[in-house]
Amino acid sequence: MSWLQRVIPFVGMLLLLQRTPALTSQQFHLINGSLTWSEAQSFCRLKYTDLATVNNVSDRNELANTLGSHVTNSWIGLRKGNTPRWMWSDGRGTAQYTRWYPYEPSGDGPCVEVFVGGTWNDVVCGHGKVFACYETQPDGTDSYVFYSPRLTWEDSQEQCRAKHTDLAYISSDLNNSAVANQANAWKNNMWIGLFSDAWMWSDGGETSFRYWLRGSSSPGDCASVAVTQQGRWVAADCNKKSAFVCHGGLKAKKMFMRMTVRSDVDLTDSTISDALLEKLEMVLSQQSITDINVSWRRDSNGDAFRRQLKIA
Ligand SMILES: *[C@@H]1O[C@H](CO)[C@@H](O)[C@H](O)[C@H]1NC(C)=O
Ligand SMILES: *[C@@H]1O[C@H](CO)[C@@H](O)[C@H](O)[C@H]1NC(C)=O
Ligand SMILES: *[C@@H]1O[C@H](CO)[C@@H](O)[C@H](O)[C@H]1NC(C)=O
Ligand SMILES: *[C@@H]1O[C@H](CO)[C@@H](O)[C@H](O)[C@H]1NC(C)=O
């Protein structure tokens, strides 16, 4: 009698992967714990997608809803990097079209003004200047709105966001002439929505929406949402322990199940172990379990099962 004709115990490991539903929106998750920024980042990457990224005003509002009545500051995924970039205030990211004056930007400051002649200059943000906002119309087209009272860049941004869409975004010569014509008419250099900073999103996103607490210059290289300050952001020491916000869906759950099968066929034969897997999937689907993938965990030889050694 060959050994295959006897009933032999085999051990194998079944891997169950449970899928989570696909996600369209950001899905923020407040974790009311106490971790440093880096620890929070690791946690979010393990369980969700990453620390929260806030791309625009609607994300900011969704984040505010997630935080609700939570009162302590919470980390988001923004951390200071080493490379400043020129970016647009409305969040769309780094500037493609630019019209710098010769030898500009010269490092004078992180905000940008349009000269009456239509070229651009970098400058400190605290001076009062006339400014250009833009507004997206219901039909999807954009138009500029100009303001003559002189405000700082931050205050201009605040007013543009409150009354329109944001500070002006410029992507063509046509756009630039429209802004320059108004600057020229008022004989004043004019703020536009271009600014520079070195902050980076943990998930690698290049969006440039910022919602800092105005007039605060707290030191620190990590960004935290201050719920008591209308959800505005403050820079804080990355080693401080705090609650935090992750985004993304829960990662697929992995489960291993060890199983012993008594069989009179050779389960180390992969055609047989594959057939057994198919049978298992069928049983699961008959019970309407379809969000689970099953597979064998295979050893370095590609075997799913081992003969169980009898220890006499
Ligand atoms: C299960 O397998 C299918 C098809 O191979 C795949 O599309 C799906 O993403 C897998 N699900 C998980 C949770 O791995
Ligand atoms: C804001 O960003 C989210 C992704 O973070 C995107 O799904 C949404 O469409 C954006 N909303 C607007 C108004 O741009
Ligand atoms: C977060 O935890 C603190 C105690 O650690 C608790 O007082 C507070 O109510 C919690 N907040 C939320 C929103 O669960
Ligand atoms: C900017 O220019 C583009 C194309 O040149 C145009 O479609 C858009 O309406 C202009 N934006 C504004 C605010 O005028």
From TrEMBL:
<dbReference type="InterPro" id="IPR016186">
    <property type="entry name" value="C-type_lectin-like/link_sf"/>
</dbReference>
<dbReference type="Pfam" id="PF00059">
    <property type="entry name" value="Lectin_C"/>
</dbReference>
<dbReference type="InterPro" id="IPR016187">
    <property type="entry name" value="CTDL_fold"/>
</dbReference>
<feature type="signal peptide">
    <location>
        <begin position="1"/>
        <end position="22"/>
    </location>
</feature>
<feature type="domain" description="C-type lectin">
    <location>
        <begin position="23"/>
        <end position="134"/>
    </location>
</feature>
<feature type="domain" description="C-type lectin">
    <location>
        <begin position="139"/>
        <end position="247"/>
    </location>
</feature>
<keyword id="KW-0732">Signal</keyword>
<protein>
    <recommendedName>
        <fullName>C-type lectin domain-containing protein</fullName>
    </recommendedName>
</protein>
<dbReference type="InterPro" id="IPR001304">
    <property type="entry name" value="C-type_lectin-like"/>
</dbReference>
